[in-house]
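Lab notebook, entry 438. We have the chain sequence and a SMILES string for calcium ion, and the next step in the workflow is to get a structural model of the bound complex before anyone spends time on docking refinements. Request logged below.

Task: model protein plus calcium ion, output structure tokens.
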Amino acid sequence: MHPILRSGVAILALGPALAGGVYWTDRGAGRLMRMNFDGANSGALVLSGEFPSAGSNLRGVAVDTAANRLFWADNGSDTLRTAALDGSGAKSLLKLAGASPFPADVRPDFANGQLWWCDQTGRLIQRTPLDGGEAVTVVADAAPTGPYFLDFDRDHGLVYWGDFSGGAIYRAQFDGSRRELLLTGNLQTRGVGVDAGGGFLYWVNRDGRSLHRCPLAAFANGPITLGHSAVATLYRGLDTPHGLVLDVPAGKLYWADTGTNAGEGFGGQSICRGDLDGKSPAELLASGTEPWDVDLDRRSSTFTEWRARHFRRDDPEPSTAAGSDPDGDGLPNELEYLLGTSPRQHDPPGGWLTASSPDADGVPTRLRFPLNTLASDWTLRLESTGDLTDWRHAAEVTPVVTVDEPATDGISRRTVTLPAQLAAERAVFLRLRVVPIP
Ligand SMILES: [Ca+2]
Ligand SMILES: [Ca+2]
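Result returned:
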């Protein structure tokens, strides 16, 4: 992707502005589902391509936002499958070898272009190129009753997984070496999720009917048990929690509940959501027949979608309005949406804005800030003034060079360079203003 220079403004050719949302497998209904972050507009994805049906025994699902693709495992045909996020171009990526393979969870490793999965009956963790190829075994004899769900610590090149019928959680290097037992004591381990930046491991204790987390540092001196003082219980009294995905920037986690322990706890046969710190009650977002796994497309092309991702459904309207500032950091929600910051966490200016002055004259000549370049409703406009009264679009006053570099989840890094003569002027003030996109 190369910037196109036009009138001193760099325009990046981005992909289509797709709405983000929640993708999940409903194993009982044999359907791939998509819905908004708050559970609204839930419906089955209509597939076209090599097959019209997602499969007969759906398991793990994963979203690749960089390529706008979905990956999932069909344990009926024992294939790994892929389709565009709109359901088109559905095709098989790989048919698993062996007498009776059992593809369960799937996770893409974008940096290395690989799709990983757990083969429960083969007790294998394997990977294959995202665009197709051979299966490579990374970990053999991964767990006594087979690995079921996995996740990555991409910062440290580690893969984490749990034991299907057992209560253990393990990790190893990306090449399968230095395998470690981390934790024991769950009643069947299901989804695992790593927040490397925050330093936490999250996991699902299926028949303990609970969700837990503990600091990664707790594993520094060998395996610990579920009863260790470092282990926190985020949610308890659930029905049959299963697949798990973290939304770290939004401070939330989502899980699928198969409902196999029907009627005995919260959220059976549903997709649910809670907080990473477990502080607010779990939300039931949508129900299915047997929800198995869940993943997220964290992008937002409208403020309404973004609000549904960051706030609870029952949060009062005043705090979720575009002009409100519930976290008191001086950034109203509409600005947090465009900057990709959190409306529920204090974001100091130094955390998102960099102003540099190559001339060392005290006036910034280059500004760097994040920007949701997928936003279809509003954008940020840089304005300047000399008298704090007559604010003008900076690009109309002076040539400004703007470069956007795609970062993650639809948020780009924008760099605005102002000409040296502006920097030399006295008393020039700049501001970022939210303006509607015509
Ligand atoms: Ca705020
Ligand atoms: Ca904030």
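Notes for the group: The two ends are 25 Å apart (CA to CA). Worth checking against the assay data. The pocket of calcium ion (ligand 1) is lined by residues 325, 327, 329, 331, 336, 343 (CB under 6 Å).
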